[in-house]
Specification:
about 100 residues, 4 helices, mainly alpha, single chain
């Protein structure tokens, strides 16, 4: 249900993490654990697969639930993870969540 929790649990604090597609492909291509299930020869092939899967997932959600997960208005917080480190991004989420709780 990755990327779909905002719909399934509407009263929750909803976070959407984005990443530049080129960086996403680079990260995925370099992930040794993925090599067991994916066999792409280039980062560009990895990128095209990511795009294809993203589009198929969006189509499926729309057909089944009439929702578009990429509509950022569905989320309380949107964070671009292209740059920066996970600890700083986690701190942003915690800070925004604490504000959300107080409201």
């Amino acid at each position: 249900m990755l990327g779909f929790g905002w719909y399934a649990v509407p009263e929750s604090f909803k976070v959407y993490l984005t990443v530049d597609i080129n960086e996403a492909a680079k990260r995925a291509f370099g992930d040794e654990k993925r090599k067991e299930t994916e066999n792409f020869g280039t980062i560009e092939e990895q990128k095209q697969d990511l795009i294809k899967r993203y589009n198929l997932e969006n189509e499926r959600y729309f057909k089944l639930y009439n929702v578009k997960k990429q509509d950022l208005s569905n989320y309380d917080l949107v964070i671009d993870t292209t740059e920066g480190n996970p600890e700083k991004q986690a701190d942003k989420i915690i800070e925004a969540y604490q504000k959300w709780i107080e409201e």
